[in-house]
Amino acid sequence: MDSTPLHIGYACINLSLQANKITTNRGMVKKTFTEKGIAYASELALKNVRDLLTIVDWNLEHGFQLFRISSDLFPWASEYRIATLPDFAEIRETLEEIGARPIRLTMHPGPFNHLAGQGKVLENTIKDLEYQSDVFDLMGLKPSHWNKINIHAGGTYGDKAATLARFAKNFSLLSENLRARLTVENDDRPSLYTVTDLVSLYEAIGTPIVFDYFHHSLNPGSQTEEEAFLTAYNTWDVRPVFHYSDSRQEYEDPKARREAHADWLYSAVNTYGREVDIVFESKMKELSILRLRGETIEVVPK
DNA sequence: CGCGGTCAAGCTCTG
DNA sequence: CAGAGCTTGACCGCG
């Protein structure tokens, strides 16, 4: 196992900086949004975006050239256009600065996105995904799978094939830039989508498959890890980003649900001699990777 | 200022 | 049949 991922990263939260209140997840409940409106949303978004720049720079200083950014940078983003925010000028400036950094940024919008959905569900999905793509546009990033916007296929509605066909049909409703960025990931439960299930989607609309090692182990379908890895690998037109985490049940708590991710990382990643970037989805975030490297870092507020 | 109840969205599974 | 969990806990009112 001599092949090291070229870029490694983690998802959304930097625990070292969060200890000093540097975070990109500021939001508000519905009541507050109703009371304070987009002025407050703008204020929170600007703070989130500024802290994202700090996190990106921390990452570069610590050898992380890949980072999944939060999909909650802009609270209640579905209710306004980013360009209408009072702090838009500063927000855009900061996003441009982030986009110019030598780091690969990705997104993983939430589980409410169902591109195969209908009516309101589909409407909300398109709105959310387009907003995420707008953020990458504002960063000045050329649309490609290098900066993936990754989602799951969603529910099955009792019929996987028909649902994937609807997903493919609705894909044509998306903007060109979003279509160029969208990827899909294999699911962790046997009722949902395996890598081979997603191949038909790739054949129909060219969306690369994000291989999640842990999900595959829980829902392998008919493929071995190597087969699924290579199947997914071959759907990419740039270096793939794959996801890795260890099982909480296996390594930390026998009573944990089988889908639960471990806090830390335990086993080595086999990339089968291929060049891939890896997002580690361990609960202890960057700390679990630093620990693997034999580095430690104090997480205490300054 | 720290604590705990509460929180947009959709689907699936668990208890 | 209500609630947890998902990708990632965080907000906010109360004492």
UniProtKB/TrEMBL annotation:
Gene name for this UniProt entry: uvsE
InterPro entries: UvdE, Xyl_isomerase-like_sf
This protein's name: UV DNA damage repair endonuclease UvsE
UniProt lineage: Bacteria, Pseudomonadati, Bacteroidota, Cytophagia, Cytophagales
GO biological process, one term: nucleotide-excision repair
PANTHER family linked to this entry: UV-DAMAGE ENDONUCLEASE
GO MF: endonuclease activity; hydrolase activity
Record keywords: DNA damage, DNA excision, DNA repair, Endonuclease, Hydrolase, Nuclease
